[in-house]
Amino acid sequence: MDTNQVKAKIVAGQVALGIELGSTRIKAVLVTDDFQTVASGDFTWENELVNNIWTYPVDKIWAGIQTSYTAMANDVADHYHVALQKIGSIGISAMMHGYMPFDKEGNLLVPFRTWRNNITEQAADELTELFNFNVPQRWSIAHLYQAILNQEDHVKDVDFITTLAGYVHWKLSGEKVLGIGDASGVFPIDDATKGYDSKMIDLFNQQKSVRQYNWSLIDVLPAIKLAGEQAGTLSAEGAKLLDKSGQLEAGSVMAAPEGDAGTGMVSTNAVRTRTGNISAGTSAFSMVVLDQPMANVHRDIDMVTTPSGEPVAMVHTNNCSSDINAWVGLFGEFAKEIGVDLKPNDLYGALFNSTKRAEDNAGGILSYAYLSGENITKMPEGRPMVVRTPNSRFNLPNFIKTHLYSAFAPLKIGNDILANEEHIKADGFIAQGGLFKTPIIGQQVLADALDTPITVMSNAGEGGPWGMAVLALYAEDNHNQNLADYLDQQVFADAEGTTIEPDAAGVAGCNEFIEAYKQGLNVELAAVNAIKQ
């Protein structure tokens, strides 16, 4: 479309807004009804460790949303010379899991406990045994049950619990709902009914520690919506919360709020069976849409769903790119010290491309990119660390390749369980995230690590909020199609992407690295125990 056509659609409200609250960035993306991004804005933030709890303050949540919305609206004004007043549909997504409990007056009872906290081990273990279903520490029900086990005073006042996306959606629309993908990180889902598993609800309510409370679990959980179902409309109060200028009109159709895993599946067109996607950022996760049930319960494999409710095996890692970003920042500081000011993309490109000269096993160097604890490797806390032997080949190409291997190492370990023990493997993965902005390099490393073809599409660095905007358009008009057909025929009919096959030498080299990585985990654990935060 040319500028005038886009302008006409903006004026007519034939646009959708996707907002995603990620771990390091809140981004707002405005998309026309032909799925083209026409404006965006963002806000950078970081989680805070307060009283040993990873959290984000509520005031920063809204400051970030308003800042990203304002920047997006200003982008519209700058490029199309119109004010953004009408939006056809809106969708909110955010990092999954975590714990936000509210009382009857709508007060947040404890600071938001994010997915990054490894503080619910007892609860997660007990619920996994009770349900015969893997309940990760990140899940909302694990946080609630741990609070019960801890006899935290706030539990008696719980009236409603939700995720970050569910909280924002509630404040914008008044509706206490979640998309089924996000809900599957709150409590286990029954694949047949597309609702919370009623037998597990009963088992939870029957626990002696739970029976002391006046509430019943089903009454405090958000309602569930499937992709394509409308989840309320933007209220007048919600419009004011989004747009501080007061220009935005109420009434936009609200899509069901989703987790970043769900928007990742949508933005990579990976919702059909045997398709898979990977999102690599502060954390990383891979998703495989199942065509067969899992034979066993695995503590490293999460059972979640697509936004339309299909069962998905998810490998989630708490750490991925943060340590790489820290090292790249250090190299950037050095460059400035010698009078060279490099743009971030150039700096990442130069360092990543150096790995073309690296050895397949990264020269015997090891790195543990743990800024926080890691569930896959049972690491309680993070101590980023580089280890090498006297005879390792310590040079820049090997050093950077080590950090790329390290970023994907927990993801590989989890996927090896899925492939080797359950014989479940995607035909290929579609990957997205900032690690893939430098062409080829991260994509090849990931293909070698998983021994699976990896495709990167043209929107690899923008996926989440764009995927939520697509879900918003789907909620407004689903074209009488299921989600998989809608994505194939409406959204991705002309999609562009590049696929890289695994390299045999790279696969062997990565496997060698991973074996050494596993053997060195005791060193990382010793660092956790010896070096206190």
TrEMBL record:
SUPFAM superfamilies: Actin-like ATPase domain (SSF53067). Residues 277-475 form the Carbohydrate kinase FGGY C-terminal domain. GO terms for biological process: carbohydrate metabolic process. Pfam families: FGGY_C, FGGY_N. Keywords: Kinase, Transferase. The keyword Zinc does not apply. GO terms for molecular function: kinase activity. Residues 16-241 form the Carbohydrate kinase FGGY N-terminal domain. It comes from the Bacteria. PANTHER family: SUGAR KINASE, XYLULOSE KINASE. Belongs to the FGGY kinase family. This is Carbohydrate kinase.
